[in-house]
Amino acid sequence: MNVFDFDKTIYRSDSTKDFIFWCFRHRPKTIFYIPKIGFYSARYYLFRIGTKTEFKEKMYSFLKAVRGEEDVERFWSEKIGGIKPFYQKIHRDDDVIVSASPEFLLKPLEKILRIHVIASKVDIHTGKYDGLNCYHAEKVKRFYDLYPDAQVDEFYSDSYSDEPLALLAKKAYIVEGDTLIDWDYTKHKTNLRT
C-alpha cells in the first residue's frame, strides 16, 4: 500500500483554495463571504488566535452559497488535469490519500482515480466539522482507524508536517513540483498549529 498527501503532492495546487476561487467565479453569492474569510485568516495566521479546525470551519461557511455535490463534480471536471504525471505512472489500486482538505471535495476522486480517500470531515452545506482537521498526527489516527493492520510501502508529501505518516512507511519522499526527493528525517516542521 502506498499513501499520499494530496495538495501539492499529487495535485499541482491546493484543491481547497482552487475550489474556493472556482466558487467565487461560478457562485457570485460566495463573494459576500470574502470579508469573513479575510477576518478569520488574519485572526489565525497573523494574530495566532484559535485552532486550524476553528479557522477552517469559519472559512467554509461560504459553502452555504454553493450547490454542494453538483459544484464539486463541475469543479473536478475542469480541474482533474491538475493531477501530476508522476502519480499516474505509479498509481496502484490500493493507494490511499490522507489529506487535510475536506472529504466532500476529494471523495469524488475515489471513482475518478481509483483510490481511497481519508480527509477532514466537513459538512458540504454548512462548513461545520465533524471531528478535528485531518492534519499532522491526526492523519495517522484517521489512517489507523480505517487500516489498523496496514503496512505502508511508500509515502509521499510536499511537507515535513506529514512526518508522522512518513514514519509509518518503509520509504518516504518529499515532492517538490514533479521531483521526488528522499525524505530527510533531520528536517522537522516546527510551530505546528492544529
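(ticket continues) Second input and output from the same batch:
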Amino acid sequence: MFTGIVAALGRVERIEPLGPGDDAGCRLTIDAGGLDLSDVSPGDSIAIQGACMTAVAIDGDRFTVDVSRESLSKTAGLDRPGEVNLEKALRLADRLGGHLVSGHVDGLGTVTGFDPVGESWRLVVLAPAALGRYLAYKGSITVNGVSLTVNRVRDLGEGTEFEVNLIPHTVSVTTLKALKVGDAVNLEVDLIARYVERMLADLRMDGGSRVG
C-alpha cells in the first residue's frame, strides 16, 4: 500500500528487454534520486508513476525492476527513459498524508487541460468511461502516483472528465509539471469507492434485502 505522497523524483536510466519478441517485458534501471534506499531490499515494493513494482536488485542509489509486457501496455511512463515519481511502500506506523493507494493502475487517462490559475495549476483529465462512477466531487484520485482531490466531474460521451488543482509545491516536486495536453497518465481510483460500488452492486442483485 502507498499514500500517493511522492517521496522523490527518480529517473529511468536504462531499459533492457527480458527476452526476444514483442511480448517480452523489460528490466528498468532507475536512479532513485533523493529516495533513501537504505531500508529497501530485493522483493520490496516501490511505486513508480503510481504503478507498484518489485525491486529485484539494489545498487547504491539505483534499483532495478522487471516489468511485464502486460504492465507496460496498461501504464504510461515506464517504457522510456525519463523522470518518474517514486514512493516506498507504506508502513503501518507511517502518516497517511494522502489517501490509501494500492499501486494498481485502473486505467489510462488523457490530459485535456493544464493551465495556470493564480499561483496554482488546473489539471483536467479525461478518464475512461468505466472509471466515471468512482469519481466524485471532493473525492480522491491518483494521477501518476500523486494523491489529488477532485474539484469537478463531468460525464461526456467519450468518458468522464475531472479537474484537480495543483499547488506550486506539488508541481515542483513531481513529474506532473511536464504534462501537456494529449499526454497519457496513470489513474487509480479511490480504494474505498471500489468497495462501496461492489457492495451496492450486491445489494441491487439481492433486491436490497441484505442489511449486514
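Agent notes: The domain at 8-88 is CATH 2.40.30.20 (Elongation Factor Tu (Ef-tu); domain 3). The longest strand covers residues 107-117. Closing as not reproducible unless the customer responds.
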